[in-house]
Amino acid sequence: MADKKAKKFKPYKKGKSCPRCGAGTRLAEHKDRLSCGKCGYMEKK
Ligand SMILES: [Zn+2]
Description:
Layout: E1 17-18, E2 22-26, E3 28-29, E4 33-35, E5 42-44
Antiparallel strand pairs: 1-2, 3-4, 4-5
The structure holds zinc ion.
C-alpha cells in the first residue's frame, strides 16, 4: 500500500520572499494575498 503522508510543496518560481524566513523562502500566491507556508506570514497584494 502506498503511504502518502508526506506532501511535497510546490516551489514557487515567482513571488516575493518572506520577510521573516529570509530570501530563500518565497510567499505563496493567493487571490488577494501572499502567504508563507513556513511561518504563516501573510501579506495583502
Ligand atoms: Zn515565512
